[in-house]
Amino acid sequence: MAGAFEVLLNDDRAQLEAFVEEYRNALDAIVDGLTEEQARERLVPSATTLLGLLKHVTWMQRVWFEECIGGRSRVELGLVRTPAESFVVDDHDTIVGVVAAHRQACATARAVAADVPLDAVVTGHRSGPRTVHWVYLQVLRELAHHCGHADILREQILSS
Question: Is pLDDT above 90 for 2?
Fold first, then answer.
């Protein structure tokens, strides 16, 4: 076991992927055991809900991995244009469907980035070239940020 730990300590990519996976899993679980009504409950003035947060992080990962690294446009991917739009929960959205979309986006992100070196420069994002390392850091930042929001909202929902 110490050998695997030592590899993780000396491997930037393994560290980034481990942290990203930890937050992906935490966000994947934010709606566990909740009703559809609870997952849609708005507790803040913005449109932020637990289901909306999960939709947003799904969209965000598709933007950074499928658009930026994979080189496919948002139109081609069927993605909304802006972050604000990605939080919108429609009548047809369900916990099962949004969780499935999130899991699929994570699987696709892993596949898209798997063989691309961290120092590779990717040009698929509209704001300009980035390294894959930068993309991982951006995704990690976003996931951690929204995981905190989700924790607070879930705590409020479960205590009411």
Answer: no
